[in-house]
Amino acid sequence: MACEKLRAALPGKVSLADEASYNSSVNSYYFRSARQRPSCVVSPTSTEDLSTAIKVLTGHPEVQFAVRSGGHQPHPEVSNTDHGITINLGGLNTITKSIDNDDVYRVGVGAGWINVYEVLDRVKRTALGSRESTVGVGGFITGGGLSYFAPERGFACDYVVNMEVVLASGEIIEVNDKSHPDLFWALKGGRSNFGIVTRIDITTFQLESFWGGATMYPWDAEDAALEAFIRLKMSGDYEPLAQVELSFLYSVQMGGFLVSANHWYLRPVENPQAFRHFAEIEPQMANTMRIDSTINFARELTKYQPQNKCATFVTTTFFINASIMKKINKIWEASAKELSSVQDITSVITYQQCPPPPKDSENAMGFAPQSSPHEDLLIFIVSVYWERQEDSDFVRDKIVGLMADIEGTTKQEGVFHPFKYINYAAPWQQSLKSYGEESYRKLNEVSRTYDPHGVFQSQAIGFKL
Ligand SMILES: Cc1cc2nc3c(=O)[nH]c(=O)nc-3n(C[C@H](O)[C@H](O)[C@H](O)COP(=O)(O)OP(=O)(O)OC[C@H]3O[C@@H](n4cnc5c(N)ncnc54)[C@H](O)[C@@H]3O)c2cc1C
User: Fold this and answer.
1) 50 CA to middle of ligand 1, Å?
2) Residues 178-205: tens digit of each pLDDT
3) 138 Cβ below 6 A of ligand 1
4) Quick check: CB of 135 below 6 Å from ligand 1?
5) CATH T-level assignment (fold) for domain 2-90
6) 210-432 has which fold?
7) Is-contact 462 66, C-beta < 8 A?
8) 135: CA distance to ligand 1 center in Å?
9) What is the pTM of this model?
């Protein structure tokens, strides 16, 4: 019924099961675990189309809907659904330079970061976007966004100057520091709880190249790699130009346990001192360190990402100390072995530093401007990939248990921090609550102001307040 009305209101932009455009939308999700089959897919090609769709949908409060930009989050029933309608924003993907400000680019939420980097690369500029090339702009920014430049500049949402938003009423508004500042704040971390973002105006900057790449080591290097990370993070001097994503992998296909480090030093400087302890670890199974552009680093990461698999992400945050990472590694190793019977399993843990707080504005994630999360907090993600849908319950149960053990240990050690980065979180982790009581209260207030009938709480699915 709602699909028929949408089809009548938006001819050629609503596809039903098994039409070619429906199948291509379902199959375009990065992970198989998110390839649900909605009753129809709405594919707006303008903000006005989306406004029309929202007006039709709010006339059917019994119908749930999902909102999708790049389709990279891995969980079922978040940016796609088996129980309602999916709005696929992939068609809102234009990228243009602002006419008022040379640094600002206006980006449709359906663009992938690769598209943004392509445009910026031509003019030797870059932006705070995903480190992997194909992630979508909409989900990444409304979830915060950890970019190459995070240690120096903070979350990517802090580099946004304006957002165009469709509210539950269908009204289209521009949201920024001056116009609807409360909503602007909420959308920086609060995802689809207040409206649907259609265009994001981002600040870009000149930078042609910087140092970075990946090193990979055999499992014997586990202790040395942990030591190198701890020495970098605990040297006493915060190094805003150096970022390391340190991962430990278990993959049956790759022959068992491995260590990998992605490093980026945000200037074109060869072999910076900051990474010397990683450079000294031998033997290295791979080493791609070089001076290169944002777009090439992003393409490199895409080559190594498992896709077309079932997947789950789960996250926690803790204060770094010398022993906690070693304890977490041991807990994860035991869990990875327990999963070894699952077909084509890959289990990965990654440690990375929390970015500095925003300087001139605030986001919803709860870090005050005067706080220093970048100096002592680590954001930790477990990402697990597997082949068969029928193994999903088993894997997800094990991962819930793994995270309970890890958080039990960080609490015991007195290093637990409640923050759960939403772009890495599982739906059961109550990420929005983890931003702190005051932030959560304000998020609810903003939701009541802009969506008084609670459409984005009761009809829209995803990570809700
Ligand atoms: C291979 C890979 C690499 C990654 N690399 C990074 C990285 O470098 N840094 C990082 O921080 N994260 C990274 N992530 C995590 C990524 O940021 C999140 O999965 C993000 O949510 C993906 O955005 P999307 O638009 O592609 O996702 P989608 O699945 O389309 O959306 C994710 C969520 O955002 C909501 N949403 C989407 N668009 C809108 C909108 N326009 N308005 C309101 N709500 C919206 C959806 O409803 C859904 O809840 C990576 C993920 C993958 C799979």
Assistant:
1) 19
2) 999 999 999 999 999 999 999 999 999 9
3) yes
4) yes
5) 3.30.43
6) Vanillyl-alcohol Oxidase; Chain A, domain 3 (3.40.462)
7) yes
8) 6
9) 0.98
